[in-house]
Please model this.
Amino acid sequence: MKFFRTAGLVAVAAMTLGACEPKKYQLMPLEEAMHRVPTPLVAQLYGPTPPVPGVPEGPVRVGQAYWQATGTVFQLPNDFVRPVATVDGLMFHSFAWDEQPFDRLLVASPGAPGVWLEFLEVY
Model:
């Protein structure tokens, strides 16, 4: 029993001392660290989507919410969508099985039957 206790202490000491490594980096001087510009935490992965003719570029108010075109395109039969609102001559649709509050709205792509442009709610 005493052997296991001693072996356990030796193993813990070896692991503790083995984890200590000499530093691999140089510390920055205090004055430089105080005035250094930090690296950005967030990077933009996707640029703005190109404008689609006949579709508003900015947020559009439909009902009580604002919606923004995302550039995502769906190819759906007309049976899968139903009209929900018309704003400035532009008819917004939702999926036929979707109820309010809607997850997304769709607008028919001009000149392409069965092609729908997605709008998502802006919070």
Remarks:
- The longest strand covers residues 65-75.
